[in-house]
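Lab notebook, bench 4. We co-purified these components, and the gel suggests they stay together. Before we commit to crystallization screens, I want a quick structural picture of the whole thing.
Request: model the full complex, all chains together.
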Amino acid sequence: MTDVTLYHWEPNANSGKPMLALFEKGVAFDSHYLDLLNFDQHRPDYLAVNPLGTIPAMTHGDKVLTESTAIMEYVDEAFDGPRLMPADPVDQWRTRWWMKFLDQWLAPSFSMIGWSVFVGPSVRQKDPAELEAAIDRIPMPERRVAWRKAIHGAFSAEEMTESQRRVALGIGYLEQALGQREWLASDEYGLADINGFNLAYAMPLSQPQLCNDELTPNIMRWLRAIYARPATRACWALGRTDLARRISLLESEPA
Amino acid sequence: MTGILYHGQPNGPSFTVLAAAFEKGVDLDLRAIDLVAGERHSTALPHAIEVDQSIEGEGPVLVVDGVAMTDSVFVACYLDEVGSGPAIRPADPYARWQMMAWCRYVIERVAPAAAALGNAAAPPPAVPAGIASADLAARWTEAVEGKVEESRLTDSRTKIVQAVEKIEAQLADGRDWLMGDFSIADLETHGWLAGMRAIVPDAFAAAPLTDAWEARLRARPAVVKALGLATIPEPEAIWAPGPEINRWG
Ligand SMILES: N[C@@H](CCC(=O)N[C@@H](CS)C(=O)NCC(=O)O)C(=O)O
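Here is the predicted assembly.
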């Protein structure tokens, strides 16, 4: 019996953050899978939960929560289980700094690339009138623009170049931070690592020339260590598409 | 050890951190720097990744035991942990989630809009030397040359109107503060909106609850003390490039 329901897509990006936090805490939850590529997140039954029409959302009893990173902090505080926010106030600050940097600087660049090579092509073959109607149902103007660009392959060369620039730099910053300490924000595994893993687990596959055992040994060490955790295995088992299956590349030994 | 706080005029993120420090009674070595002249990029300040790549843009820097902390809401959370004054975050996990989600909205939607409008109204004179982040440097160039697209400014005005509507709705049940009890959300929201009264007056034309809330906030001793650090008559009219307008959605 649980009074927690998580509305999520694949264990990946924003959906994967609260999923993995719940698994690490050992909190049982009802999994409500939404197919992002089928626009499930814009249907009335989900808009009743999150009127913004973005994934994830969580309910705990009659409380409704959105914003993946803020949900993770709630999960850590509201339930028993291992502490995922470090105890030291400076480490707490660093945890939040990195989560914001990932959420608002690095992840959007990965998203733009991911939407242009995966999300757009995955839905493009649908009936154009049906797609237009689907886009019209999206509540947030910013998300309507993103979907239109993805479907029509309309990301400008300039914005793609900027995203690729940020991805390259961001990988460098992660490598630098993980060269200074074992985990991203403190000496213990925590929320910043859960956040970062959801963004970074497929980097050795999607950015092989930037992220590999030779160039970024600390990132590779960190990704493999997180992959080895039972909670990560259990979480990724909820994936239904090839997106989640990319994680198996972390089974490889260091070169 | 006493921390060193490098801060600008009490507006935007500098306002949040100064007022939070006073609310919590944290003793800091206050060092005023000219953010508009780009002093944050000088060699006098530390330049860890968290300073140079802070996506808040030109905000304050708190140095404690050699660690340089940026991003006002999270610095305020730190001050809440270490200070002895009354809490500036709710204790209940759900109320805390509400505060963090509210602050995320301000950081992600309101702050970029306010910074764009503020810089357009009072452009900085020159792009300072030594900016490590290329995207922050690009925002400086845009601000100095007044090149922000009109569509972005229009959208930014809409964001300010929506923010005031959201505050009115939040205060509609008669509460004094945005989260019920006074919190970081009040400081961060006011820090970014104070300068918008002059720039987007329509947003405040029929917002009596917001007016009363601001008056209450500005009467708090810690806020009076923070505003008292201004070296010019209208600190809310001083802007340097802030967070970027969301490029993905
Ligand atoms: N800031 C939100 C962002 C949520 C978000 O944008 N989620 C994406 C998936 S990772 C989404 O719902 N996209 C589908 C859409 O926009 O239609 C969070 O962290 O939860």
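The mean pLDDT of chain A is 97. Worth comparing against the SEC data before the next meeting. Residues 85 and 120 of chain A are 36 Å apart (CA to CA).
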